[in-house]
Design brief:
heterodimer; A: 645 residues; mainly alpha; 4-stranded mixed β-sheet; two-stranded antiparallel sheet; B: 649 residues; 4-stranded antiparallel β-sheet; 29 strands
Amino acid sequence: MGDSEFAYGSSLSVDSMKVIAESIGIASLGDDAAKELADDVTFRLKVIVQDSMKFMHHSKRQKLSITDIDNALKIKNIECQYGFIQPDSLPFRFASGGGRELHFIEEKEIDLSEILSAPPPKIPLDVSVRAHWLSVDGVQPTVPENPPPLSKEAQKLESVDPISKLSKPTNKDAAGKPMCGKAARLKASESVHVKQLATHELSVEQQLYYKEITEACVGSDEGRRAEALQSLACDPGLHEMLPRMCTFISEGVKVNVVQNNLALLIYLMRMVKALLDNQSLYLEKYLHELIPSVSTCIVSRQLCLRPEMDNHWALRDFAARLMAQICKTFNTSTNNLQTRVTRLFAKALQCPSQTNNETGVGPSMVTSMKESEKTPLASLYGAVQGLAELGPEVVKVFILPRVRWLGERVEGALSGLGGADRLAAGNLKHQLLKVLAPVVRQLRQPPDLPDDYKRDYGYLGPSLQQAVSKVRASPLAGGGGGAVAVVTCTPPLVPAAPSPSHSHAIISHAPKTVETVASRNVVISASPAPQSPAPSTPPPQKYVIVSQQKGPQTQPASGASHIMVHSSQPTIVRSQNSVVVTSGPAGGAAPPQKVVVVGVQPAHHQVPSSIPGQAPVSVVAKPVFARGGGGPQPPPELDDLSHLA
Amino acid sequence: MGDKNTPLLAVLQLLRKYNLKGTEDILRKEASLGDVEYENLDLPEVELASILTAHHTESDPYSYEFAYDNLKKFIETSLDIYKHELSTLLYPVFVHMYLLLILYDHNEHAVNFLEKFGQEQEDYCQEDLKRLSIVKHKDQIKGNELAEIYSTNKFVVQLSRDASSQLKRFLHEQKSSTVIINIINNHIQVEVHDGPGRTQAQVRATTGGMLGEATRNENRTKVYYGLLKEPDIQVLPAPVEDEEEVEETPDKPKKKKAKKDNIFMKKPKSDPNAPPNDRIPLPELKETDKIEKGKALREASKRIQLGPDSLPSICFYTLLNSGHTAICTDICDDSTLLAVGFSNSNIKVWTLTPVKLRGMKSAEKLLDIDREAGDVLVRMMEEKDRDTCRTLYGHSGSVYKVAFDPFKTLLLSCSEDSTVRLWSLQCWTCLVVYRGHVWPVWDVRWSPHGHYFVSSGHDRTARLWATDHHQPLRIFSGHLSDVDCVQFHPNSNYVATGSSDRTVRLWDCLTGTQVRIMTGHKSTIFTLAFSVCGRWLASGGSGELIVFDISNGSPAAILPPLHTAPIHALAFSRDGTILSSGSLDCNIKLWDFTAITEEANGEEPGANPIQKEEKFLLRSFATKNSPIKGLHFTRRNLLLAVGSYEGSA
């Protein structure tokens, strides 16, 4: 019958009839009888469905429901079928055997006592009426109650085919202002119109909105920032401002990377996050601006003034997660986004003489290289983090083969003198172990011998072995080792939502945890044990220590070395795994300033007083906003980074 | 009755039908049939045909395909001016051939025939063909709604004089096969008109009815579509208000007053098309009604003039947490109350203003009230403010329509339980249950003057009621399928009905007769709205929107099918310049009705309209997944829309 079968309806088959007959105990139904029955049942069913369609239409629905069928049976004086009230569609199961194929509905046995003992279902919410303006004088206001003025599909179409905008009559959709009065007459009289492909002008309201939003996003008022980000993440009518927002972000990143303004970079990344979360935006068009900005924040060699103290690691982690989100959302077979991003990170991990390294030439090679030729450890950290967020498979292919070389870099830095390098190396090592452990666990069979690991993975081998065996031992690690590792070191993404019980417990210990005062190396133990500057604190964690002691005038290159964490009565605000220590001003002449210190390895090492001066990664076009950059005014307050990590 | 005798009885019946008494007697004697059987000769037409055709010479199944092919070829080769009119013949011939094939037990051939030629029928016939294709056996014809309609009624085809003579010539040539001639004689009514042959667009504009086009003769009766002369009511309360307003705006009181007078003066000019005011007895206006009318007039003077350059603002009322349960909505004339009917048989009434809904005092307390007091109406209500929402319980099935009376004291509802209920909005109880419809009642509407209302339902009738009668005053029957929607004419003298048979009909309330039958819709009609001036009738179906001219019953404008789902709400702005349509596709569209009527008036009366482009569409507003269930223009021309949010999924 082919197509026509669909055109003029299908019918029940003789086989179905026989199966149904069997199910009610009629063993052998004759072919003729089955045929007769099949035809008749088909006819009756179709008539009932036709009538139930009427009920569907009059209920102003476009989906047929069971009550419609019941009503149709009722007007035919047939008793309704009871027991078919099902919230979701009935799934048909398929079975075959004995040369027959069968679709059937599974009938589960229901335990009545279970139903009786179950708590009563929630009372549905009462119907309520809510009013909003769908149109004001013919213009649809862009409020959340209304659909986005330009649907995602339309935005996409526009970006793919800008000509389509010209062919469409523009005054029919609800977004813009209707043509009226003089303008309309003018339009009608003129025969030649020059239509622009894109509207470049923003209304006054939009300009105000843009100004407010951008100011709030990078301003110092955390409350307003939250509101602004909320607006960016939810408002449906942003698409006209999107190009400007994206330029704002990319220019901002360029400038602030040079200025090493960590806080602003974080704010900008949070803007990216908000835009990504906005369901009504079609961001594909602006990825060319966003991706470089985000990747800058992942792999840039320096993101803050004091690499050995500021928590730029959290920014790298956050940006890496953003990148993973971008890849997941926008990757298509045509843009190969994920491949390109992966290649970008993999290239950062490429050692200059990789061929040598892979054949296993020792550390002499590394030491012989000039410092400046090497990829900075911070960038390596970013690349590792960026790859790790893309999934275990990527880790296996791109990080694992380079672990030996990375280990050498870490070893070199840890044994070297540079304090910042040492810190970075520690972080990198920790990150590598965290990322690799679950992957290696999957790859290798249980007897984890330190020697094997040493042979296979070089310097990091023994530590990796420990990490792997720990993952294996951990009961939570079943299958999702990576996820667990991430959880232990990263608080949830949702800002300002730390689990209350957790934080309370730790705050109670808090005043005791800080031991060393007025020293450059603050050692805080994560364990609740009150006093322990013990170097062997088991799980390395990140701490954010904020002192309100103002250091001397900060300088981009070496400012970090001057900072003294000077606190008489430190108070610790802790959320999840980051500890923020704030202390009152200690009588310094300068106004208080907050400093963020990050320690991963709580070790008593001398922090070198300088970090190697490095050229910024991105090129500055023009300063868009450079708060505290170069000027005498103090840099903006760094906020609590715990919400980022 | 023995099987053997059935054919004989059929022959007897046939003889009687043709009044051949002699033959009949002889046959009766010969067959020695009893009197009882003879008296009970009432075999249904269908059965009769099937019995007789057992010996039919035309029952050769192959001749059908051949004959249909021939007809098709003839139409294709005919001149362009005849072609489009003649092509309307194809569908009814096709349908009857299919039914005949089934009748003669050539079921296999019937299925093949349907598959071979079904696809090439007009797109709007496909829905019917699908329904018809269910019938695969002659026993099923009897139970099938559509097949019965086709076999008991004549399909109307309009042909120009020349086209019909062409057809006659063709049929004469087809001596060998009488199939088509028989079908055309028995089942098709060819209406000959004197004009020139119509174009494809013209033909398409009026076809689509279940039984073809409306005939011209059916639409000859004069319809008084003008408005009634309004009684002078603004005299009483209006001047007081006027003075207040004058005080409020001392700048240019003169001008304002003059303008207002202008609005009031327009109406009293007697309309040649208006019916006499006493053609239908209308209820006397009560004192309270007059106050209400006065208010309405004053509001109307503050109305915004709408047009393509000044579009209305739309306030959208979203019903939250209602899912699919909210079915119908209505907003009362002064836009203070919103009623919603639910599938769980409830009716909820919300107040849209800060004034809360109050109930009436109990009977004992009412006795204490001084009836002569000026504020008796206020006193009889409960003192305490009550809820913003009240629920009315009483129906036992989905509520398909709720309607406020023009004076905001009564509410009508109709339901799947085949009743219409009248509710009081003062004591919030059910007052009357009107039983009469046999099956679900789809729609109910008040007369614009109150007192009368009209309901329609699955029983293929529309019924006119008065609130003080428990039985209908008129039953309008004639539709071939469900009557899905009704609407009162603004002058209360006529009722329009829209049906699943894809026709819109206009009935005279005075005589109960059908005065207009309007075809052109290609799908079920779900909603109707009369223009403010009373001359135009807008009707909405599954995406299509047609404006009919009541004066001659022809479609004045076929608006482009921009809605992708059934249109369930239509509303004219109070000044009649904008037509708004709301559909289940979550869109509200505004149409330039002034342009539509100008276009229609510009044409020759009687000439058929052309398909309109998008130029009538002013604007389209989408909601966030809230299908539109009701539209209402306030007296000041603010558009209120109601929809139920169905979630973001």
